[in-house]
Each structure stands twice: as structure tokens, then as C-alpha cells.
Design brief:
18 strands; 466 residues; 16-stranded antiparallel β-sheet; two-stranded antiparallel ribbon
């Protein structure tokens, strides 16, 4: 990514348990999950356009979360018209991290405990109408300790403990105009707990070293105003239609939606001019609350069985995140008249930066029995389009992009094994930087120009079909 020499290693251990039993009028379930991740990532960020020699130190991250959860659930029917599902959830996440960024070494540990109670009731009004009402109460406890060190500059010791409590609600009304077709309206609320920016206290310590303004005052502002980010609350409205058509050969879903966020959690970074080029990387990607954001759009997807060998999948989404209030947005490099300015508030009606609004993905699948036992030939072609993201300052000047992937292989009918060859980004698409920035060959030669590829900016709205 960005031509950065990198290495990544991930080890996963996971155990799942599901026990279910039934009585005359109610079903009980017990679900448990345990997961242990060991993640190591290493890369060089000094200059992504060239590969540095082996003696240049790399940034690295060790991330080791251990998480487990349990859930007890009951569901059943009361009479012919009313059914329900209710339950209790408890989860715990213990995480240890070691992070080295530009010679800044951060050691951290955190424990997150979450407890929730939920219920959802559905009432069948008639053969064509039903309605659902649900609720959830959650309590999240977050406890973290972070220690950091910059050689020759300062240390960081930032303990943090907070408890978040929040109720959430849901309402849905559904109409069935035909046996396999459903129209619906849904309203939901949700929340996300807050936290801390572990490097923000270090900015205050550095203000004693970088004593000249505006750098000093900007570092003090980061220490004071960007230490904590608060709880995010949201509500969503959705109007949709889904069903199967053409003798169940076509499955189609489409919806219109509006999401309103209070204190939306986002990321912002100081410019080089505000805190010096030495510190801008270390203090980048600070979590911040956007006081109010509205996201509205439309999404649609369908699966179509063309014949016994061919099938197609298509999905498209338009989603516009629009700022209503954003007071803590940091200036991009070159945006403010005074390069030392730290804050450039987001303008009402302006999109959030770097969010493509339109995304399309289309896939064509082929399957054919080879007549040799249960062997099957399979393949697919994928095309994906993302439009040009909004940018207030053109650094870099990204454009829209269309990529093509293909896969061809042979597999056993029972799915126990498969062999495949694949090619990604067949046409070698590149997202170009701003004018005047040249993509260079790696210092060691070979390998071609570095490619800065954008992935899906909205995985919540558009997904690949597998």
C-alpha cells in the first residue's frame, strides 16, 4: 500500500460453542466464542516513493487481543400472532500492543468489558402486515494504560478508565404484497463507546521542547482538546424492498437510507506547518468527534441465475456523508493561508474528506461439471468502480478508478479441495497523485511503479458476493 515495503503475519486461534434445547413453547440457546489473535506488521514510512536500504529502521506494530463472549438467548411464540427473542450478552477483550512509529515506542494494554440485555417482539397484524419493536441496554467498561517514549524528547504515561451506558431501540413495519416479496420501513438507534488518543498527552510534553509559536500553542491544543473522544450516537431510517422473482431465479434488494450521527468518531491529522514535519506523522490519525453528520443514499443488489452454468451478482451504492457541524477538523497541508494554523472547521453541507460517494461492483460466475467423478470447472470475472473522492486540498489528486479481477479453477464437488489461478487488477489501474509528483522506480530497481490502489471506502454498504 502506497509502495511501502511491508511485512505482515497474523495467527488466529478461535473456538465456538453453540448449545440449543427446546421446550414446548420456548427455545433456548447458549453461544460462546473465544478468539486469540497475534498480529505483527512492519513497514517503512520515511518515503513511500522509494525503497530504503536495509539499515533504515522500519515502523512496526504488535497487536495481541484475546476476546471471549457468551450469550444466552430465548425465543418462541405466544399464540398465533406474537413471537419474540430475548437474551443476555457478556464479552471481554484484553489487548496488549507494542507500536513503534518514527522511533516513538508505545506500549499499551486495555481491557474492555461489555454487558447487554436485548429483546425484540414481532406482531403479525394480518397475512400481509407485521410489525417489530426491539430494545437493548448496554454497559461498556474501558480501562487502558499506555506508556510511550521518544528518545531524547520525553515520556508518556496515560491511564484511562471510563464506563459507557446506553439504551438502543428499533422499530420495523413490514408489508408483503406477494408471497416472496417484502417492503419495509425500519428505524434504529445505536451507539459506540469513546476512548482516548494515546499520543495526545505527549504533545503537551513536547510543547516544552518546541517552545516557539505556533508549534508550541498547537501542541498544547492537541494535548487539551484531543485527549478524549466521546461516545458516538446514531439513528437511522430505512425504506426498502426485497424479494425473489422470475420463479426464484432473481433475488433483488434495494433501499433508501438516512443516518444521523451525533459526535461521529472520525480521524484527523495536523499539518506539517502546524506541528513540524517531525511530529505530524507521529500525531496523525487522532480520533475526533464530528458533532453532527448526516449520511443519506441508496443501495441495490441482485443475484440472477442465468442458466444452469451462469450466474451474475451486481451491487451499487450511493452514499453521501454530509457535515452539519465539525469544529475540530484539522487543516490539511496548504489549506490555510497561514501554514501554522491548526484548525480548519468543516463547512456545513460539505462531504467528509476522501469518501467516494458512488461504488459499483459486478460479478459473473461460471460453473461446469467436467464429467470426471465430481470435479467441477469454475471461474468468475469481477469489475469494481469507485468514483473520485471529495478533497478540499488536492494532495494527492485522486481520480475515479475501475478495476477488473478474474479467477479460473477446478474443485471437488464436496468442496473439500480446489485449485485456482487468479489475476487482480488486470488492466493495471493506478490512482494518480497530484500534478508534479512522479511515481518512481524502487531504489533497488525493478518491480515497476508503485501503485496506490483504493479499496472500498464503504464496506458497510457494498460487499462482494462469494
Amino acid at each position: 500500500f502506497k509502495g511501502v515495503p511491508s511485512y505482515s503475519d497474523t495467527k488466529v486461534q478461535e473456538v465456538n460453542l453453540n448449545i440449543a434445547w427446546s421446550l414446548e413453547s420456548v427455545n433456548f440457546s447458549f453461544l460462546a466464542q473465544y478468539q486469540d489473535l497475534d498480529i505483527f506488521q512492519q513497514q517503512d514510512n520515511t518515503n513511500w516513493r522509494t525503497v530504503p536500504p536495509p539499515d533504515v529502521a522500519r515502523d512496526f506494530l504488535e497487536f495481541n487481543p484475546v476476546a471471549w463472549s457468551t450469550e444466552i438467548r430465548a425465543d418462541g411464540e405466544l399464540g398465533e400472532r406474537l413471537n419474540y427473542v430475548s437474551g443476555l450478552i457478556y464479552s471481554e477483550d484484553d489487548t496488549d500492543t507494542i507500536n513503534s512509529i518514527n522511533s516513538i515506542n508505545i506500549l499499551g494494554g486495555s481491557t474492555t468489558e461489555a454487558f447487554g440485555v436485548y429483546t425484540n417482539w414481532t406482531y403479525r397484524i394480518s397475512d400481509q402486515w407485521d410489525t417489530s419493536l426491539g430494545g437493548r441496554w448496554s454497559r461498556v467498561s474501558y480501562n487502558a494504560t499506555v506508556f510511550g517514549f521518544i528518545p531524547g524528547l520525553g515520556e508518556l504515561n496515560a491511564p484511562y478508565k471510563e464506563v459507557y451506558r446506553d439504551p438502543s431501540y428499533s422499530f420495523k413495519i413490514q408489508y408483503y404484497p406477494a408471497e416472496d416479496v417484502q417492503a419495509y420501513f425500519a428505524y434504529d438507534t445505536a451507539f459506540r463507546s469513546g476512548g482516548i488518543n494515546v499520543l495526545a498527552p505527549l504533545a503537551g510534553d513536547l510543547a516544552a521542547i518546541f517552545s516557539a509559536d505556533p508549534v508550541r500553542s498547537n501542541l498544547l491544543a492537541i494535548n487539551q482538546d484531543y485527549l478524549e473522544f466521546t461516545q458516538e450516537d446514531s439513528e437511522s431510517f430505512e425504506l426498502g424492498l426485497k424479494g425473489t422473482f422470475l420463479e426464484q431465479r432473481l433475488r433483488w434488494n434495494t433501499s433508501l437510507f438516512l443516518q444521523i450521527y451525533d459526535d461521529h468518531q472520525y480521524r484527523t491529522s495536523p499539518s506539517d506547518g502546524a506541528v513540524t514535519a517531525t511530529l505530524s506523522g507521529a500525531l496523525s490519525n487522532l480520533a475526533v468527534n464530528v458533532e453532527e453528520v448526516e449520511v443519506y443514499g441508496v443501495e441495490t443488489e441482485f443475484n440472477f441465475l442465468i442458466d444452469e452454468n451462469w450466474s451474475a451478482f451486481f451491487t451499487a451504492a450511493y452514499a453521501k456523508p454530509e457535515i452539519q457541524e465539525y469544529s475540530k477538523r484539522m487543516c490539511e497541508e496548504g489549506e490555510a493561508e497561514d501554514s501554522g494554523t491548526l484548525i480548519c472547521p468543516g463547512k456545513k453541507g460539505e462531504p467528509l474528506n476522501d469518501e467516494p460517494e458512488f461504488h459499483v461492483l459486478a460479478q459473473l460466475f461460471y460453473e461446469y461439471p467436467l464429467g470426471m467423478g465430481d470435479l467441477e470447472l469454475f471461474g468468475n470475472v469481477t469489475a469494481e468502480y469507485l468514483d473520485k473522492p471529495f478533497q478540499r486540498v488536492k494532495t494527492p489528486n485522486l481520480r475515479d478508478i475501475t478495476t477488473y479481477d478474474a479467477t479460473l479453477g477446478v474443485r471437488a464437488g464436496d468442496g473439500k479441495w480446489s485449485f485456482r489461478v487468479w489475476c487482480k487488477n488486470i488492466t493495471d489501474e493506478v490512482v494518480l497523485p497530484s500534478e508534479g509528483v512522479q511515481l518512481q522506480e524502487p531504489a533497488g530497481g525493478g518491480g515497476g511503479a508503485h501503485r496506490l490502489l483504493r479499496g472500498s471506502a464503504r464496506p458497510a454498504f457494498v460487499r462482494r458476493h462469494r
